[in-house]
Amino acid sequence: MNSSQRKDHWIKIFFASNAVTSIIILGLITLFLFKEGVEFFGQYRDALERYRKSGMEYATVVTKQHDDQTLLYRYLESILSQEVESMEGIANDSTKKIQAQAKTKALLQLTREFQNTKEFLLVYEKKMVKWAAETKLFLLTKSDLIDVKKEAISSDLPEEDFSESIEELNDRQSFSHTELARWQNYFIRHKREDLAKRINPMVGTESGTHKTGEINNLTSIIQESAITQYPDILTKQDNRFSTILSYYKPSFILSKSEADFKKAKDALSEYLINVPLYKERLTTWDPTKDYPLHRAFSGFLLGKDWVTNSARHDWYGVLPLLSGSLLVSLIALALAIPFGVGSAIYVNQVATAREQTFIKPGIEFISAIPSVLIGFFGIAVLGGMVSLIADERLNSLTAGFLLALMTVPTIFTLAEDALNNVPRALRDASLSLGATRWQTCARVIFPSAITGIISAILLGFGRVIGETMVVLLCAGNRIAIPDFTSGLGVFAQPVHTMTGIIAQEMGEVEFGSIHYRALFMVGIALFLIALLVNFLSQTIAGRYKASY
User: Fold this and answer.
1) Torsion angle of the four alpha carbons 396, 401, 405, 408, in this order, in degrees rounded to the nearest 10
2) Concatenated DSSP letters for 159-202?
3) How far apart are the C-alpha atoms of 403 and 355, rounded to whole Å?
4) Which three-class secondary structure state does DSSP give residue 509?
5) Residue 2 region, left (φ>0) first, then alpha (ψ -120 to 50), else beta?
6) Plot region of 3 (φ>0 → left; ψ -120 to 50 → alpha; else → beta)
7) Residue 45: partners with Cβ closer than 8 Å, 6 or more residues away
8) CA dist., res. 224 & res. 104, Å (int)
9) In a 3-state reduction of DSSP, which class is residue 307?
């Protein structure tokens, strides 16, 4: 092997090692991502089971029912408020004033009657929430204690004060502050502060439902109340609400109030029709029913709520984040594709050499601007401009405009490269046959470069959906599925994105917690979207290659 061959050999080794290293790093990242993420579903299922077994599932439905009643009450309050406001414009000591006062008094009596009626359920709801919260704390404590006991057994720690077996811990129905503190001190004495930290002796310091300094399992009490107390409350409410519908016929000063009151009565009638559904659901509630694992999968993939640090239950549904990411990406691509591809065609086929030296660096320079500075521009300048046509300054439209600006250089550069790769002979042949420059671009050059242009667009999509800082600063960060029924208004709604939620919350979560693993699952969703985009790009490119 001569020196030239040796040189080529080492160059091959160098670049091959770089490629292998890249593959290894990508593989390690993928393995780490899935390793940290897939455990989420088991943890989430356990959390859903505690949500049911603690009675919090039952309490939440009761709360939803009371919230429905509260909306009706606020409707009546609004009518009362506008009636009182209109009465203030009537002259004092006039006959009309006296009549208006009588009408308002009747409406006030009706509103108070409605409020007193809905309080029946409110008192019951507060009691259920208190019992369910105590039970949930008990279940969490028991789960932690069992895990700690298993660790103590595997570490060959002497039993001493923590002598209860796993079976005995499973059978426990309460824990006191005193014994939790004793068990914590036990691990401190044996220099296992890591296990001691997992036992919180303060959980029983607040007054429990029955005994001070204890936390109790009250699931059976909650279930009994669902069968006995809850139906009686609904019956009492139904009778009173029916009385309101039948006997209270207040007159109004304003014709608008009369129309609003009719709507309120119709809404109340609809609520009373749905009451049996609530009763059937809650009286048949079964806390012993297990949550299957597939419910954790469907809850994440199809869940409409992303709620963390909730006193009742945390929900990890990716749908609002996914829809927010796709909406912002759609806006960005709708703006970036015409500008990026159009600029590439103009620069490559039409522009003079002088125009090229001015346009190309100008577009490509955008890539050098830090995304955080573009975000600042969105907050300070663009947001104010968008607020002229939208209700809020920071929304999907603001973020979409900025992402389009950032994506144009990517699409432009790759699309121009694709146009450059079209053989010059094709263009010359088209022109020689009498085609105009634009006909040549539209019917020869563009179709021949379509594969590269599609790749440019898809890479631009990857650039958009993977952007973090701009969407975090300018998208509005409202975790909700956009209202696609609002027409063009959907493009001006605040949203949160998958990348934004990871950047915002990852630094605050506890390592190994459900929240921590949920964020990794969001990352896996992004990873799978990237794979899907690449698959589609290859498929589409292959079809176009076959056509031309």
Assistant:
1) 80
2) -TT----HHHHHH--EEEHHHHHHHHHHHHHTT-HHHHTT--GG
3) 26
4) coil
5) beta
6) alpha
7) 291, 292, 293, 295, 296
8) 43
9) strand
Q: Which residue has the tokens 């605040």?
A: 494
CA distance 505 to 498: 11
- Does residue 1 have a pLDDT over 70? no
Output the pLDDT for position 524.
92
Measured CA to CA in angstroms, residue 16 lies from 7, 13, 21, 175, 319 at distances of 14, 5, 8, 62, 41
Cβ-contact 540, 66 below 8 angstroms:
no
Long-range pairs for 90-94: beta carbons < 8 A, 24 or more residues apart: none
Element (H, E) at 235: helix 229-247
- Residue 478: HSE in the Cβ half-sphere, 13 Å Cα cutoff: 14
Of 450, 457, 442, nearest in space to 336 by CA: 457
- What percent of the chain is modeled with pLDDT above 70? 95
* pLDDT band with cut points at 50, 70 and 90 for residue 210: very low
Whose tokens are 């250089």? That residue is 409
What is the mean pLDDT of the segment spanning 94-108?
A: 80
pLDDT tier for residue 541 given thresholds of 50, 70 and 90:
low
Digit-coded pLDDT (tens) for 393-446: 899 999 999 999 999 999 999 899 888 888 888 887 888 888 888 888 888 888
Gap between the Cα atoms of 415 and 453, Å rounded: 5
pLDDT recorded at residue 205: 57
Show the tokens assigned to 418.
């694709």
Two tokens, residue 108: 């006030």
The backbone torsions φ and ψ at residue 476, rounded to the nearest 5 degrees and listed phi first, read 100, -25
Contact 215, 225 (CB under 8 A): no
User: Helix H segments across 350-491?
Assistant: 353-365, 371-377, 383-386, 396-420, 424-432, 437-440, 446-448, 450-465, 469-474
Strand, coil or helix: what is 94?
coil
Mean predicted confidence (pLDDT) in 162-174: 91
**Dihedral sign for Cα atoms in the order 501, 506, 509, 514:** positive
In 3D space, the residue among 29, 33, 24 whose CA is nearest the CA of residue 524 turns out to be 33
pLDDT at 489 over 60: yes
Q: Are 476 and 470 in contact (CB under 8 A)?
A: no
Indicate the pairing of strand 214-216 with strand 174-176.
Answer: antiparallel
Rounded mean pLDDT, 339-364: 88
**295: its two tokens:** 């419910």
Q: How many residues does the chain have?
A: 548
Contacts of 547 (CB under 8 A, 6+ apart): 447
The tokens for 281 are 């659901």
